[in-house]
Amino acid sequence: MSRRELREQVFKLLFRIEFNDEAEMPQQVQMFFEQEEKPVGESEREEIQDKYARILQKKEELDKMLNEKATGWNVSRMGKVDLTILRLALFEMLYDDKIPVSVAINEAVELAKRFGQTDSPGFVNGVLAKFVK
C-alpha cells in the first residue's frame, strides 16, 4: 500500500470521530478494518492505527492552532471533511519528520479534491499555507 493510500485510510478512520463518541471508537476502529473493501495487511493496519492514535492525542492542540490561524473560521464551523483533512495535514506538517511540509499540503489538497466540496481544496490549501513559515 502506498503512502497516499495509507494516508487516505487514516483520513477515513479519523473522520469517524466526528460522528461517534470516544467510548465507541474502539469498536468503530474494528469495524473500519472489517468493512474496508481493500484488505489491509497487519503492518499497514498497525501503521494506520498508530498514526490515528497520535493524531487523536494532539487533536485539542491541532484544533487550537487551526482556530488561531483560520481567520474567520472556527473548527466548530468547518465542514467535517475539511476539518479532518486539516487535522491530518497539520499533524504531518508539525509532527511527522518523514513527510515534507509541501507533500503534506499537496496530499491534503488531493484528499480535499476527492472527498470535499468544490471549494474544499482552496480552503484547505489556504489554511495550511498560514502554517508555512
Report on this model:
With 133 residues, the protein is mainly alpha-helical. The chain has a single domain, classed as N-utilizing Substance Protein B Homolog, Chain A, CATH 1.10.940.10. The chain is built from six helices and no strands. The protein has helices spanning 3-15, 25-35, 42-69, 80-95, 101-115, 120-129. The mean pLDDT is 92.
CATH topology assignment: N-utilizing Substance Protein B Homolog, Chain A
Proportion of residues in extended strands:
under 5%
Helix-strand string: HHHHHH
Shape, principal axes of CA atoms: globular
Question: Could you give the count of β-strands?
Answer: 0
Quote the average pLDDT: 92
> What is the total number of structural domains?
1
What are the salient characteristics of this protein?
single chain; N-utilizing Substance Protein B Homolog, Chain A; 133 residues; 6 helices; mainly alpha
Question: Could you outline the blueprint of secondary structure elements for this entry?
Answer:
Elements: H1 3-15, H2 25-35, H3 42-69, H4 80-95, H5 101-115, H6 120-129
Short summary:
This protein has 133 residues and is mainly α. Helices cover 70% and strands 0% of the residues.
